[in-house]
Amino acid sequence: MKGEIDMNIAYYLTALLILSSMALPASCQEQISLTINVHEEALDGPLLSEVLITGSDGTGNEFAGVTDSDGVAVISGTPGTWQFSFQKDGYDDLNLQYDATQTEETAAYLEKSSCAEQVALAVYVLEGSLDGPILSDVQITGQDGDGNEFSGTTNSTGVAIISGIPGTWQFAFQKAGYDSLYLQYNATQSEEAAAYLEKAD
């Protein structure tokens, strides 16, 4: 009887060991997914496409992904502390850790690089039309593509050189005796541009 009991105990122990060994790979292979939204400048800023995301998951497995046109990338891996690196031309690199324990949605943001390439516009201001006479002493103010303010005044040849970060620039042109002019300009490279003012009624 005792021998039979010992054999039953041995059988159950063997069964438990087999079940345990079968369960281990399943837990080791458990995966979660993070849906990562990458923004510009702040978590409520515009979404950024083509951001390269690299790093490693909770067990050190490396991953890589790129945000799509909606600024989203889905990264999968094992739970734990994940290491992230975010990279995009014109923006400062971002490196961070995240405690990934479940499938969820999260977000990060990149800041524009302070050393971003600048462009310069030679802005000509004329009277009445683009082929009219030049205007000196026109006050030009506005913002570049990064929101930095600028100002300048046309010289005796009717031109002012304005430098800033590429993007959509906001301009205001003012001169006594003329109607003020406000416009946007897509400044992507160093070049010449022109505007004209009309005499005030």
Automatic annotation (TrEMBL):
This is Carboxypeptidase regulatory-like domain-containing protein.
